[in-house]
Design a protein that fits this description.
By secondary structure, the protein is mainly β. It has a domain at 244-344: TolB, C-terminal domain (Neuraminidase, 6 Propeller). The protein is 2% helix and 52% strand. It contains one helix and 29 strands. The strands form seven sheets. It has a five-stranded antiparallel β-sheet with strand order 1-8-7-6-5, with no helix packed on it. Strands 4-3-2-29 form a four-stranded antiparallel β-sheet, with no helix packed on it. Strands 9-10-11-12 form a four-stranded antiparallel β-sheet, with no helix packed on it. The longest helix has 6 residues, at 9-14. It is globular, with a radius of gyration of 19 Å.
Amino acid sequence: MRRLNYSTPTVLLAMTLAGCAGAFEPTKIGSYALEQPAASAVPPSVPSRIYVANESSNDVSVIDATSFQAVGTIPALNHSTHDLAVSRDGRRLYATNLASGRVSVIDTVKRETIASIYTGERCHVVALSNDDSQLWVANIGENTISIVDTTTFRILGTIPVGKGPTGLTFSHDGRFAFVSSQGEKTVGVIDTTSHQVVKTIPVGANPHFLVVGRDGHVWGVNTGQNDVYVLDPETHEKVGTFTVGDKPQQIAFAYKGTAGPLAYVTVGSQNKVVGLGGDPGNLKVVDEIAVGEGPNGIWSNPEGTRLFVAHDKGNEIRVIDTGTGQTIATVPVGRKPIRVVVSR
């Protein structure tokens, strides 16, 4: 893969014209353009859906986010479907596939994969820029982030990062991207204008999932240890840490009654979700919810009253009422569900 140097404005302007041949051409499976019906027939919005990446069955489960009924299954047409990102209008879904090194582009209206983009060896996590114009993909096998144009599905360039990039998210203002690196036990801060790593923050063993909280703080888990950590969005310093139990996996934010937003963490070794509250520098357990075997992916509804938890051993999604801590629905999905996202 051609490595682009982002250090000069000239290269930045030219990056859309270079490095897109050969393996990096998107494979067109269907139509890139979503069908636009007559104005009178356009629904006000795409129905809210829960999407689940099933790593061992190579597909995405689709569940209605209101009734919690299964809607269908979308083949990724690749192997080891792992992470998901959904566009803000809910009409496109992007799925990484570890074994294929490809991102599947899914039309959520047709519920089918319309394109396949090779981004690099063992592409792991994916995140959309704040305006949905770019898709950033972390490639574990190449220690890079690939930047994909979401209109043409072409690679705009790559950014070298630390060894084993496994977590990726953007700041609220879009000025910075954060990437966790397993091999270096750090989180790198990338300036999204210069595409340079401007800071490296030590965080702990096997840092994995990253997410931005509602107040802008960046939260991460150390799956190789037993803790979560919090990064300040302005100073890019670690300002908090808390032990939750072995193999913490992912984090979502929700309310318990009027308390919150709490950071709910799936703890794989204890089959539970732990809700943390308080100032980042003085975190405390506010809630604990027993769930099924092997909790991994987690997401919340926009109101913060429901949690959707994927169980990679039980092959199911549990819908949890955060007010009562009770499971109100259990939905079977594909084999080894890893990631959950919900369209708005």
